[in-house]
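Hi Q.,

Before the meeting this afternoon, I wanted you to have the adenosine-5'-diphosphate prediction in hand. No need to reply - just skim if you have a minute. The sequence and ligand are here:
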Amino acid sequence: MRLGALEAGGTKMVCAVGDETGKIFDQISIPTRTPEETVPEMLAYFKKAEIEALGIGCFGPIDPDKSSATYGHITSTPKLAWRNYNIVGAFEEALGCPVGFDTDVNGSALGEVTFGQAKGKKSVIYITIGTGVGAGIFAEGNLIHGMLHPEAGHVLIQKRSDDTYQGKCPYHKSCLEGLAAGPAIEERWGKKAIELKDREEVWDLESYYIAQALVGYILTVSPEMIILGGGVMHQEQLFPKIRGYVKELLNGYIQTEELEHIENYIVPASLQDNQGIMGCLELGRRALRGE
Ligand code: ADP
Ligand code: ZN
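Predicted structure with the ligand bound:
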């Protein structure tokens, strides 16, 4: 099966060709400009690749509801050139093949569940902490959409009393994204996150905020595994700190095997930053099979 995968991001579009086993044959990255500039380049790539189906994991918000008139559109994004853009329609029409569509983070969750460490699990949350914060939710065997789709990167967070930074989210100021995404770290501490590697207090506060959100997700969705990816999570010292705060905040209320072995429960992504693009291959496979 020759499948196309498109991980559509605000800064770059990663296009790949691979198969149903998650094997990637070829991959390119194109800077995200306007649809008029960027889409023809991507179409040329996929046309040449002679794919049978395409899976798109897309920055959002998007409309993933097949019964909606605006299905397949990017909706209220702050990236104005892409607002109300029918990305699924553009690819379906030009390629003439089935197109699967979901959020970028649901795509990453699907990649981990299909090909990665979460294989066989029924409920898994994938969180990316990078330029923004997003969460994909796979629950009881399905990617969750609901009214729109989870926007769990914007859950509200209780600020710690020693943190005077007001938060960067234009909608909520001090939601998780506003307090803990890469740009918030940079603005709060006056340096890029990567340059703050040795500043203990940076990662302590960061893990406290991430843990608050994880506790909310644990209590709401009861996932069997929580996977953390994205640029900021390359700071591996975050993991033990996050696990510690999660235990502290749960305060013994939930007792499960998973929490007992929390080092196997709250874990880094397992597919060398290919979880997103591999998930898109699976979205393509599912579209081909009409799933
Ligand atoms: P995006 O979210 O745009 O897809 P990334 O997941 O790479 O891309 O996230 C970029 C953000 O992550 C930036 O704010 C950057 O400062 C931060 N970042 C990237 N690499 C690291 C790192 N090794 N350590 C800490 N922060 C990082
Ligand atoms: Zn927000």
